[in-house]
Amino acid sequence: MVEQSSQSYNQQQAIQAREARKYVYLFREGNGKDKKLLGGKGAGLCEMTQIGLPVPPGFVISTEACLEYFESGFKFPEGLTEQVRTAVAEVEKAMNLGFGAPINPLLVSVRSGAAISMPGMMDTILNLGINDNTLHGLIERSGNERFGWDSYRRFISLFGSIVLEINDEQFHLAMERLKEDRKIAADTELTVEDLKDLVNIFKKIIIDNTGKSIPQDVYQQLFMAIEAVFASWNGKRAIDYRKEFKITPKIANGTACNIQTMVFGNMGGNSATGVAFTRDPGTGENALFGDYLDRAQGEDIVAGIRTPKPIAEMRNAMPDMYRELLKVRETLEQHFKEAQDMEFTIEEGTLFMLQTRNAKMNAAANLKTSVDMVNEGLIDKEKALLRLDPSQLTQLMYRQIDPNNTLQPIAVGLGASPGAASGEVVFDADEAEKQAKAGKRVILLREQTKPEDIHGFFASQGILTAVGGKTSHAAVVARGMGKPCVSGAADIKINHITAEAYVGGNRIVQGTVITIDGGSGKVWLGEVPMVEPEISENMDRILKWADEFRRLGVRANADTPMDAEVALRFGAEGIGLCRTERMFNASDRIGLFQNMILADNPEERHEAVQKLLPLQQEDFKQMLRVMHGFPVTIRLLDPPLHEFLPSEETIERQINVLQKCQQALGDVCKLPQILEDIDPSLQTVLAEDEHMLLNLSEIQSNELKQKIDLLQKIRTLREVNPMLGHRGVRLGITYPEIYETQIEAILMAAGELIKETLPVRVEIMIPQVCTSQELKRVCDMIRRVERRVKDRLGIYVLYSVGTMIEVVRACMRAGRLAEMAEFFSFGTNDLTQATFSFSREDAENKFLPFYNEHKILQDNPFEILDVKGVGRLMHITVEWGRRARPDLKIGICGEHGGEPSSIEFCHRINLDYVSCSPYRVPVARLAAAQANIKEKRGIIKPFQ
Ligand code: ADP
Ligand code: MG
Ligand code: MG
Question: Catalytic annotation on 172?
Answer without folding.
Answer: no
